[in-house]
Amino acid sequence: MMIVSPGLFKHPSRCFRSYSIVGVGLLGTFTYCHKYKINRVSFSSSIPSYYHCRATLSTMMEEVKPEFDSDKAAVLVNELRKTFNSGKTKSYEWRISQLESISKMIDEKEKEIVEALRKDLSKPELEAFLSEILMARSSCKLALKELKQWMMPQKVETSLATYPSSAEIVAEPLGVVLVISTWNFPFSLSLDPVIGAIAAGNAVVLKPSEIASATSSLLSRLVGEYMDKSAIIVVEGAVAETSALLEQKWDKIFFTGGARVGRIVMAAAAKNLTPVTLELGGKCPAVVDSNVNLQVTSRRIVAGKWVCNNGQACISVDYIITTKELAPKLIATLVSVVEEIFGKDLMESKERSRIINSFHFKRLVNLLEEDKVSNKIVFGGQREESQLQIAPTILLDVPEDSMIMQEEIFGPLLPIITVERLEDSFAMINRKPKPLAAYLFSDDEQIKRKFVQNICAGGMAINDTILQVTVPTLPFGGVGESGMGSYHGKFSFDAFSHKKAVLYRSFAGDSPTRYPPYTPGKKKQIKALLSGKLLNIMLALLGFYKD
């Protein structure tokens, strides 16, 4: 069913109109605008005050090309490649000027950014500042401070086989890169990789998520206003535009989103042997030992679940594993902390983001209403679709084969699974795909060591949640189904750079041993040189190994 404006029916025999189709696409739920010329339309009922057009399947449609198609994407990439090949983006001065422009943009447009995030996700102002503005600003300031050092060639040792010589590793920009961002942190997760790409000297196309439409529109306008339009471009749109971009040859694709779309991106990149960084997600566990400070533990779990975009974060706590003995105390403390932060009437709280859209709202409700799950709710569960709000919800001992334990929740639902011994949690975690993050709360040093050694995850935090991503000296990235590649800090610079190996030699020291004919004496001399033993090397250099 499509909703059409009254103006469509002025000439029902020959109508021309654009309309939106809402559904699930490349980046989750999308609104895709497309134009059709409708030659014949039949209606199943009279038209009320708001017009439901029920076009029959036999409706003849003449498709009109979308505004941004593969041909236009190819032109865009070619223009950017001309800019890159001119050498413009490689200079230190250009990189610094663009980073300074981003910093200025964030400072001057902070109120507009907060407002866009409020429109898209109802993000509280403080949360928007901390998780979006401050994160992007910090990344930019670090790049400005460290760029000269990052760009310097790295001197490395050489071997005796190349004596006399010197060598270095040169960080070289990859070229023209594509950044496909996501909707849950639509500002910081768009700019953070772009900052790395610019710092590394690339030309960049940013495709923000159309689901966070206000932020996407703002980014398009601000980047056009503050940045170099010949090298840094924002392309807005949905599935058609993303598909058109993915058909092009890029020097790197950086994608943030889900594993399903990550596979689509990787398949498209493989056609041109384009390297990819995939920042995906997964079911991030939090294991809670019985020897912890329950109040601090609960506050940090609440911060890593409901305060963090209402659970709509790839590093959010997805589920908890604890002992049967501790579970009742942990639940009681979590409930106390939730009510302390959000109030007794959870649905009236203004301190939580809303669910992004009705598709994800219904997806989360379906997880709650599964037969073997619906009776496991021990706290919360209230919902209001008109407000796209679901209260913080705790469930106890849901079956491991339930949907809520099989897929990433990405919302305010928190299952707690109990085990007899804490070590039993390791096997449960390892039965699932490798998560983007894993958390442990314990004062037992042996448990900490076992957790780090035996649990494979993109990253970890011991006795806290989510803060590992704020440390610029730590790489942020997944492993297995939670992603590949990493970024943040210098790792962002490295993600968009090629490490070029360079060996320098003079015309001296041209040993005849490397050239044919290879005689037994030369073979002995080469072995001596490569032996690493000083005496053998000296004898070889003095010519003692002869035929």
UniProtKB/TrEMBL annotation:
The superkingdom listed in its UniProt entry is Eukaryota
Gene Ontology MF term list: aldehyde dehydrogenase (NAD+) activity
One Pfam entry for this protein is: Aldedh
Keywords from the UniProt entry: NAD, Oxidoreductase
Q: Which InterPro entries match?
A: Ald_DH/histidinol_DH, Ald_DH_C, Ald_DH_N, Aldehyde_DH_dom, Aldehyde_DH_NAD(P)
Q: Where is the Aldehyde dehydrogenase domain?
A: 69-502
Active site per UniProt: E279, C314
Q: Which GO terms describe its cellular component?
A: cytoplasm
Reactions catalysed, semicolon-separated, are: an aldehyde + NAD(+) + H2O = a carboxylate + NADH + 2 H(+)
- Its recorded name reads Aldehyde dehydrogenase
